[in-house]
Structures are given as C-alpha cells and as structure tokens.
Inverse folding.
C-alpha cells in the first residue's frame, strides 16, 4: 500500500513547518548574541553537573587509605581505575554481567510495551469515536496524579503468590503500561495525524488494525521514540520496586550499587569505581540520544 | 469521521465482491471491526493498569485493616488498629517531618535555580544543543549512584564539602549527625538530578512567550533584569506551578537517596533523615514484618499526596484564571514549544 509514502509526505512538511516555526521564534528572540557572562554562568553550571562524575573517577583511581585521609586524593584519574572495574566485574558477590543483562532486558521490554500499548490506546482516544471515550480519557488523565507506587504491598503479596519474587517478570509486568504514556500519545496523535489519512486508508479497504499499523504507527514515530527513551531511562535508574522484589543474586544495575555499598564499604575506591561502571552505559547512550531527550522534555514530558 | 462508519467501505467491497452473500458477511465483519476496535485498542492499557496499578492501591486498604505479617500472611481483621498504632508512633511523625523538610529544601531552591538556568539558555547561544544537553547530564545518573557520590562529598570526615568549609575558616558540619544538615545533603542530591531537567521545561515555556511583549518592554525602557521579572516570570507562572506539582508527587516519595546515605539505609541511628516511604519499607521488610501497618502508612501518605495535589490544583486554577494570558502559558507547560 502507498499509505506509508503518503504519511511520509504529509509528516514531512508538518515536521518542517514545526522546525521552521521554532527557528523563527529562536531568531526573533534577539539578534544580539549572548555575552560572556551568560557563557561563564552556563560553564559553571556544566562544571557542577559533570564534577560529581569526575570526582567518582578520581576516587576510583585512588588508594582507599588516601581517600580516608584526604578529600581530593589526586586531581587526575589514572589506570588503577581499570583494576577497580576488573574487580567489580569479576566479583562473585556483585554479579555485574547478570545485572547489566537484567537492566537491559527490563528497560527494553518495558519501553517497547509502554510504547506499543500507549500508541494503540492513544490512537483510539485521539482518532476513533466510541461510547465512553470522554469519561475514559478523563480517567486516564486523573490516574496520572495518583501515586500508584504506594500499592507496593499488595503487589508484593501478589508476586509472592505467583512465586515471582527474585524473577525479572516481577519488575517487568507491573511496568508494562503507564497512564502518562497514553496521555502523551493521545495528545500527539490528535494534533499530528490528519483524519484524511485514516479516511484514505479506510476507503482503500484497509481494516482497522491495518489502518493503525500502516498509518497511525508511522505517524506516531517521533512521539513514540521520546516516550520510549524516557521509559528506558526511568526503568534503567529505577531502584525502589526492584530492591523489594529482586535480590543480589539476580540484580539490576542500581541494586549493584547497593551491594557494592554493603559488601565493600571500607574500600571506597572500589565502590566508586563500581558506581562509575554502573553509570557508564546510560552516559554512553546519552551521547547519542541526549538531543532527543532534550527535545522530549521541551515538548512537555513529565517527570516519571 | 464518516470514515469510521462501515457504510463508507461498502462501495469498495461492493466493487470487489460479486456475490451479495459474501458482501453481506464482510460488511457485517467490517461493522464489528469499526465498533469493537476502539475498545480493543484501549483494553491492554486498562486491563494491565487495573491489575498492576489500581487493584493494588485499593487492596492496600484491605490489608491495612488486617493483622498481616510478611511471613505469616493474612491474620485477623483488626479495624483501624494499624492506623492508630502508626499514628501513635513518634517515628511516623518524625518521618513525615523529615519528608516535608527535605521536600521544601529540594523544591524551592530547585525551582529558583532552574528558572535562572532556563533564562541563561533562553539567550541567543552558540551551540545551544550542547548547553541544553549539558544541563541534562545528571538526569541519566541513577539516584542511587548520585546518593553514593554525594555521600562521599558530604562525608563528615574528609568529605570534600567539609574540607572546603575548613579551608575557608568555617567549622565542618556533621552531615550525618545534625538533622537539618542531613536534610540539606539529601535535598542537594535530589536537586542535582532534577534541576537541569526542570530548567528545560522552563526553557520551553520561555520560548513560548510572545516576543512582542519583550519588544514592548524594551520600548518602555526595561533592562534585561526588569524584562525577566516583569515579562518572563509572570508569563511562565503556570509552568512554575506545574513543576511544583510534579516535584510534590516525587518529593513526598523520596526513597533511593535515603537508602544509600549510610550503610544501613534506614535514616540514621535517630531516624533523623528517615522519610515516610523508607518508614513504610522498614515496617514491611524491616524487623517488624508488618504489612498491615505498612499499608496503613501507604494510605496515609496517599491521602496526603492527594490532599496536597488538590491544594495545588485549586491554587493553580485561581492563579490561571486571574492570569492575563492563561491559555498560552498553560499550553506551554504541557506541550512546550512543539
């Protein structure tokens, strides 16, 4: 079907228009370039953002005895950092590779699920007419403000009954959908998916699900990517619930930080080396997707 | 929307199929497709959300009126005993005080600094994306890692911050001893992670402010600082409230930072920095093993969050209705400059 091409053609100009609008707005903000004071202050802000991470590298490179005597044992990281990395990775109490794999599995599966189900529901709310649509959408929006994390105790009882304690599904299943995701996709699709496209596909004889798959899904791609990214970061850094249902034998990366603290609290250089190692994967991902994260927040992503 | 009624696909099907009976069947199928699909598409969300979100929340109320042990399971119905037990515990009230104190210490400076950073980013910058990404770096550091790193910076002995204080001739602070100092340290961790994030939300709101307002201010002779306070701040007021609300929901549930602030992770020997969620955790998975009492705490905290949320909502409504241009500002808080 030619519907994908049609979407690309219509999504193209729409995206271009939005970009042009943004450009125009930015340049109309003032032709005067920012002065050095602005750059200095921003530079300081960036230093404050980066310093704790740099400090972690420093402590990871130092001798534990030095750390307990001197606030800044040295000013430059050195190769002894890699010794700490090696110790953390090979430690039998830490299970680093298991944690990395687990974090990856959880973050990928949950992001994929949140994106798929949110897009499906968002498409339905944004573009289809059905009885009860209004009240149901209000319900979704209302539940965004409800702190469902407070339902941990029955959820824990449920996981115990299912014999899921210590298993990844205990973390994955409760995170499969979010009200925010549905709201986010509804908003995006109701603004950016023209009815004409759906109509055209229907006239061509496409079934409802076919229309969703070949019209709505491609059109939803930018918003879906952002939702996926935020869900990924949120799952990757999540600690509260995984610390309840998982243990140090089958941990995620944040749980590794806790194990490091309780197993090696006397060896601060090892702990800090481990903390950096745990932070590193997301930092690397950030280099590639940071721009999209910034755009996502500026389009109104809410803290999750 | 006419497209979503089956009649529209009928001519197409009619052209394709020659036999009237088959046409009737596919038409009926098409009608069901149109009628059921919307419900089918929203059902995964509602079913999963009901099972993993709403049901546990409601069932918390059921657990909270029972004697319920982590190991022994469900016990007798005890009415509101769990609630009265918890409310009689000084630790509960102390944890609530800690939570509110950390919340205030983290949200107020955070909003002020975030607005300042946003104002800097709103200038006509070279490499704007670089600066924006730069302030977002802390967001990708897990709270537990932030807590470990800052735990070292705020170490009572030989911590960097105390060393600097000593260097400039001040007394070192007992970050793990003094109650308010520990709150400040934990609030700093929260601020580190979220300030840049909120700055970007404010930046989006600032970019949605009509530029004519600034031009008018310039004509009236307002300098940059005056423009900021007389044009920018009033225009992004709704976004400020929006950020305050979201940080309220998060700020009242602080857990990770406290768990890592010392090795025991239960808020210190005198519960000086134990938050209410950590208290809940300790009741259920600590020595007491009391899921019943923990559920009572969960419900009390839930009611508190809803109450504060409602107050926020009412304040927001009042302020937005008195706002000269509420619509543009409100829009920017939910959708930014998209």
């Amino acid at each position: 079907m030619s519907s994908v091409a049609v979407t690309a053609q219509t999504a193209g100009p729409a995206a271009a228009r939005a970009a042009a609008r943004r450009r125009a707005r930015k340049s109309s903000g003032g032709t005067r370039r920012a002065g050095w004071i602005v750059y200095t202050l921003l530079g300081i802000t960036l230093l404050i953002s980066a310093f704790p991470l740099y400090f972690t590298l420093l402590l990871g490179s130092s001798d534990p005895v030095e750390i307990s005597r001197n606030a800044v044992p040295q000013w430059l990281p050195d190769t002894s950092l890699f010794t700490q990395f090696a110790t953390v990775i090979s430690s039998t109490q830490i299970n680093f590779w298991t944690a990395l794999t687990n974090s990856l599995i959880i973050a990928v599966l949950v992001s994929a699920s949140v994106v798929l189900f949110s897009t499906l529901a968002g498409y339905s709310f944004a573009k289809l007419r059905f009885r009860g649509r209004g009240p149901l959408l209000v319900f979704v929006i209302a539940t965004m403000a409800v702190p469902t994390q407070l339902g941990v105790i029955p959820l824990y009882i449920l996981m115990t009954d299912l014999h899921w304690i210590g298993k990844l599904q205990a973390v994955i299943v409760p995170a499969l959908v979010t009200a925010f995701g549905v709201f986010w996709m509804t908003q995006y699709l109701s603004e950016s998916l023209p009815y004409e496209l759906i109509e055209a596909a229907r006239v061509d004889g496409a079934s409802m699900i076919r229309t969703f798959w070949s019209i709505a899904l491609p059109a939803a791609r930018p918003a879906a990517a952002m939702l996926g990214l935020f869900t990924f970061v949120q799952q990757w850094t999540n600690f509260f619930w995984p610390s309840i249902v998982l243990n140090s034998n089958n941990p995620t990366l944040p749980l590794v930080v806790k194990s490091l603290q309780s197993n090696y609290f006397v060896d601060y250089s090892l702990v800090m080396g481990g903390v950096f190692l745990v932070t590193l994967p997301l930092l690397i991902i950030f280099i590639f997707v940071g721009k999209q994260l910034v755009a996502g927040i500026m389009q109104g992503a809410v803290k999750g | 929307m006419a497209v979503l009624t089956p009649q529209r696909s009928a001519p197409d099907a009619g052209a394709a199929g020659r036999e009237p009976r088959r046409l009737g069947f596919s038409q009926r199928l098409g009608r069901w497709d149109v009628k059921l699909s919307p419900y089918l598409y929203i059902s995964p969300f509602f079913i999963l959300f009901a099972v993993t979100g709403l049901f546990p929340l409601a069932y918390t109320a059921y657990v909270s009126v029972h004697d319920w042990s982590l190991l022994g399971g469900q016990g007798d119905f005890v009415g509101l005993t769990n609630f009265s037990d918890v409310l009689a515990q000084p630790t509960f009230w102390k944890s609530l005080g800690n939570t509110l104190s950390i919340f205030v210490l983290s949200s107020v400076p955070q909003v002020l600094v975030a607005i300042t950073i946003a104002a800097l980013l709103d200038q006509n910058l070279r490499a704007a994306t670089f600066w924006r990404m730069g302030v977002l770096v802390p967001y990708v550091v897990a709270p537990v890692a932030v807590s470990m790193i800052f735990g070292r910076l705020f170490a009572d002995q030989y911590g960097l911050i105390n060393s600097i204080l000593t260097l400039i001739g001040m007394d070192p602070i007992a970050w793990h001893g003094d109650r308010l100092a520990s709150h400040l340290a934990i609030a700093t961790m929260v601020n580190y992670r979220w300030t840049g994030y909120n700055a970007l939300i404010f930046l989006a709101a600032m970019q949605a402010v009509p530029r004519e307002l600034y031009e008018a201010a310039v004509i009236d002779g307002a300098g940059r600082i005056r423009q900021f306070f007389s044009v920018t701040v009033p225009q992004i007021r709704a976004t400020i409230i929006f950020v305050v609300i979201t940080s309220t929901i998060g700020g009242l549930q602080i857990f990770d930072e406290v768990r890592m602030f010392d090795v025991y992770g239960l808020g210190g020997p005198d519960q000086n920095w134990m938050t209410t969620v950590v208290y809940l955790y300790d009741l259920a998975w600590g020595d007491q093993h009391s899921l019943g009492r923990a559920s009572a705490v969960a419900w009390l905290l839930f009611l508190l969050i809803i109450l504060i949320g409602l107050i926020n909502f009412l304040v927001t409504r009042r302020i937005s209705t008195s706002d000269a241009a509420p619509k543009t500002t409100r829009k920017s808080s939910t959708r930014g400059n998209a």
In short: The longest helix of chain B spans residues 20-64. The mean pLDDT of chain B is 84. Residues 135 and 196 of chain B are 5 Å apart (CA to CA).
